[in-house]
Design a protein that fits this description.
about 180 residues; Rossmann fold; six-stranded mixed sheet; binds guanosine-5'-monophosphate
Length: about 180
Amino acid sequence: MDNKVKVNGLTFVPYLTRDKILEQVKRVASEIRSDLEGSSEPVFICVLNGAFIFAADLIREIGINDCKIAFVRYASYEGTSSTGHVRQLTGLTEDVEGRDVVIIEDIVDTGLTAVKMIDDLKKAQPKSVRFATLLHKPESSRTGFKPDYVAFAIPPKFIIGYGLDLDGKVRNLHDIYVIEED
Ligand code: 5GP
């Protein structure tokens, strides 16, 4: 694993290796595969930008060919903290009426994005909505929202890598890094 990563004047230290991540991606994939057994054309919704790498690995690992993949885009973060204001930047283009839907998110922090997204999605009348997240910070919750599938529950510290950014950078890192404590 690489050592420290410096970006925008902040230092990050290794937290989760790619091997550990892929192990948990496989576990979550098998839970979703078994819950979707018998489902006709489920729709996976990848939440841009942060979830694109997790979604790519997860959806391929789930291995359901008869599925659709769609993308939505929401923003709430500036730098290393939530603004508390969630904006939809790109809406859903796939028809989800009567379909089983799995939202794939990078991280649930306050839960505000998740709650807004599920609210928006329910207007399109899906048969069911499940929520999968790579990371969950239960201690940061401002909503009590609980994802159906969680690869890792983590403490409320800012992290980067494997799709997660700092001001748009470092999404490309294979591993996950946490901000260095003073
Ligand atoms: P929430 O609405 O649950 O507070 O935040 C969800 C969004 O905040 C995530 O999709 C992600 O974009 C951003 N976010 C929350 N915590 C972190 C973090 O530790 N690192 C990064 N890079 N983004 C985060």
